[in-house]
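Q: I'm writing a short explainer about Lysine-N-methylase for a general audience and would like to include a description of its predicted shape. Could you first generate the structure from this sequence?
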Amino acid sequence: MRIIQDNTFKILQPRYYSKFQCDPIKCYETCCERWKIIIDKSTYQKYIQSENATIKEIVKTGLSINETSVNDDDFAIIHLNNEMGCPFLNQNNLCEIFIHMGESSLSKTCKSYPRAVILVNDVIERGLEMSCSIAAELILLNESGIEFELVMDAVKLNDIYIVSPTIEDSRQIEIIKEIRTTVINLLQTRTVELSGRVAIVGSFLNQIVGSIDFSNIHHEEALSKIKEAKSLINLREFKTTKNDHQLQDIRQFDYLNTILSMKFKEGDSISFFSKRYIECLMQVLDAFGRIKNKELEKHYKRNFEKYLKPYLDKKSYILENFLVNYVFIYGVELFKSNDIWTSYLKICVIYGLIKFNLVGLATYHKGMNDDLALKLIQSLSKTIITDKSYLESVIKYLEREKLVELTKVTTLITD
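A: Of course. Here's the predicted structure. Afterward I'll give you a sentence or two in plain language.
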């Protein structure tokens, strides 16, 4: 990452961003537990050099050098206590760093979250992570959809984590941003059912992967190919052929159930699962656990139609906002030229898992409401999206099962 002095930047952000304010009273899940917490070198040195008796006692066992550090931003690790909480939290769930050393001594991690900040060609892009319950509500319940704005603002670069894409060619970044903009526009095309929009995104990206040679990229030619791919999108076709997947999605429950089960074998320890997600998961398992295997697929589809679909028909914007926010926050890295299709597979997996869990919750509660939907999406975001090794294992599973082609992977998302 380039080192730039604090300055005023042109910033692209969703309009919701300026409305966010941390509120511990309204927060349903503290951000100070069940994370792998890294801290920067400067913060580490402040803590180990502190003369405060409370801080000195905590750092004896609460901090260590990160043996896999790649730069000063992830120089050290905070070790969680037996309750999987930050050791700097006291019995009243208040931060001892804040109390004894002041807000300015908080680590970059603590100052940043849930803000996601990216520096792209001297323009900052920023949004909010949906693993924060307050942010999730702000993002997901916006019925008119996520809108974006350009603002000018001063940013203290040394106070927060800034992600810079690992892409050196500025022309390539422009191409990736054009792809991301197209994907977001497609996801917000409400004349098509949401699952159909995700399939349309796949059709668009499939054409991009097949038509642009990213190893020998020509800027104008690439932009022309993107424009051509957009022109080939047929929204009417996706309206009328949605049911063409009915024969091939007979194993939708089986695939998604297997993918979710892999989380326990291939992903982070269950001790890092969001507590709220564990609550949701227990109810999902209860909803499906009493059904005979041969009846599960029919049971799943029947209960989707009965308990979840009526809610989604009225409030599909909730899942739309999730997908748009996900693509915006992770888009520049998400659609790296050599990995565009894998990025799309991850979108389908995460979207499929959300719907799978929502069906289970709706079955358990005999219906769905905003509180349940927000709880599931926030807690699943905290548990799934950050677990890179798990998602990589899922991609390998899709490859083994020959589910990576467009007509196959949409098995995970069709209604």
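A: For your explainer, you could say: Residues 340-365 form the longest helix (26 residues).
Q: Perfect, that's easy to follow.
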